[in-house]
Amino acid sequence: MGVMLSTNAGTSWTSSRISAPAGSEATVAAFAPGDSKILYVGGRSPSYSGLAFRSGNGGAAWTDVTGGFKSPPNAVAVDPQDPDIAYFACNDGLWRTANGGSSWTKCAIQNDWGMQAVSINPNNPQQVFAGNSYGAYCSQNRGLTWADISAGLTVPYVTGLLFNPSNKTLYAATSGGGLWKRAM
Questions:
Q1: What single string gives the DSSP state of each residue in the chain?
Q2: Across-strand partners of 53?
Q3: Around 27, how many Cα atoms within 13 Å sit in the side-chain half-sphere?
Q4: Long-range CB contacts (within 8 A, 24+) of 105-112
Q5: Measured between alpha carbons, how far is 94 from 9 in angstroms, rounded to an integer?
Q6: How far apart are CA 120 and CA 111, in angstroms?
Q7: Backbone angles phi, psi at 69, to 5 degrees
């Protein structure tokens, strides 16, 4: 499994190999906003099980941090203030690590099957957002508890989330329902 890395806005690329079962594919990647040398990559094995890897040196070396999740991640987000905190949105739920991937905890979200999206407020990383085919959810304590914020979504199937800190607005892309926004 490999990841392509660029340090010059895509002018050139280098390959970073990750030791994973033959036939594995990378599906998501994110760097720590506060330290671009810390990267998380998620993927799937040939048997469609989830994989997770972390690099602390810009992709020169990788550590397998695959946790308790069974399905491949659909999205990943890294806490902007603490790079040891990361979230993987997987079909079997939203998973959180607070120790750089040494252990993972499944977030307690009602209707957590098929998590497709995760986003963090960069100005207040206590505020985390997640989305799936049942709607959108918000945590005010770094993923420890969650509230359903789907009211107003006519098509609740959330496929992507983006928080804009300049206007404190959450944008939700939906499958067949367009782009929705909500002031937070």
A1: -EEEE-SSTTSS-EEEE----TT-EEEEEEEETTEEEEEEEEEE-TT--EEEEEESSTTSS-EE---S--SPEEEEEE-SS-TT-EEEEETTEEEEESSTTSS-EE---TT-TT--EEEE-TT-TT-EEEEETTEEEEESSTTSS-EE--TT-SS--EEEEEEETTTTEEEEEETTTEEEEEE-
A2: 41, 64
A3: 24
A4: 106/68, 106/69, 107/139, 107/143, 107/146, 108/145, 108/146, 109/137, 109/146, 110/146, 110/148, 111/135
A5: 30
A6: 20
A7: -70, 145
| 17-183 has CATH 2.130.10.10 classification | yes
Whole-number Å distance between alpha carbons of 157 and 155: 6
CA–CA separation, 104 and 17 (whole Å) = 24
Structure tokens at 37: 């040398």
Could you list the pLDDT tens digit for every one of the 184 residues in the chain? 989 998 899 999 999 999 999 999 999 999 999 898 999 999 999 998 999 999 999 999 999 999 888 899 999 999 999 999 999 999 999 999 999 999 999 998 888 888 999 999 999 999 999 999 999 999 999 999 999 999 888 878 999 999 999 999 999 999 988 899 999 8
- What six digits make up the tokens of 19? 């030791």
Say what the pTM is.
Answer: 0.93
